[in-house]
């Protein structure tokens, strides 16, 4: 009886943990109105690494790269999105940077394994627009911390989106 109860509790906790994940958030919001959602395939990661030396050092070891921008026009919506991101980052992520200004948020969180950073999640919300940028791979923790302290992650999402919008045109011109 004890084993059955323990198995049930484990199942409930595992299902709750999967709700608070990037995959779940991405899938739940990618079809919302006025959302821009980008999941970068492996072949494009090489093109993105040309944005800057910092991007080259990050993207060089990236296996999964996602970006999402979504409307956050009401205080209730902003608070809802902030709570969802807190649920994700509170789940074994380490915050390396956080700036709160009422409901506005700028957060850089990482997930480590031994001496390497395995995941980086950058969340921004300015009460009008929210966004996240997610990297999964093997990253140098010193470089990640340095980029967070120098605010180099803040505009990375818009830079990435601009590069992705420019990429198809540059590919078409070469053909």
Concise overview:
With 175 residues, the protein is α+β, with helices and mostly antiparallel strands.
Key words describing this protein structure:
175 residues, six-stranded antiparallel beta sheet, alpha+beta, 7 helices, disordered C terminus, single chain
Task: Tell me about this structure.
The protein has 175 residues and is α+β, with helices and mostly antiparallel strands. The chain has one domain (21-174). The chain has seven helices and six strands. The chain has helices at residues 2-19, 22-29, 42-48, 53-59, 75-89, 141-149, 156-174, and strands spanning 36-40, 62-71, 94-101, 104-113, 116-125, 129-139. Strands 1-2-6-5-4-3 form a six-stranded antiparallel beta sheet, with helices on both faces. Strand 5 (116-125) and strand 6 (129-139) form a beta hairpin. It is globular. The chain starts with a helix and ends with a helix.
């Amino acid at each position: 009886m004890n084993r059955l109860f323990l198995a049930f509790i484990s199942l409930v906790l595992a299902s709750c943990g999967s709700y608070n994940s990037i995959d779940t958030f991405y899938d739940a919001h990618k079809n919302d109105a006025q959302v821009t959602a980008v999941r970068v395939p492996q072949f494009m990661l090489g093109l993105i690494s040309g944005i800057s030396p910092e991007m080259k050092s990050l993207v060089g070891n990236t296996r999964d790269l996602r970006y999402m921008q979504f409307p956050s026009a009401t205080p209730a919506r902003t608070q809802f999105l902030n709570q969802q991101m807190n649920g994700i980052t509170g789940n074994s992520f380490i915050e390396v940077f956080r700036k709160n200004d009422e409901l506005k948020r700028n957060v850089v969180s990482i997930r480590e394994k031994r001496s390497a950073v395995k995941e980086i999640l950058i969340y921004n919300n300015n009460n009008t627009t929210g966004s996240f940028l997610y990297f999964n791979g093997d990253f140098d923790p010193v470089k990640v911390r340095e980029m967070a302290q120098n605010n180099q992650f803040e505009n990375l999402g818009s830079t990435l989106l601009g590069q992705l919008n420019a990429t198809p045109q540059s590919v078409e011109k070469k053909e």
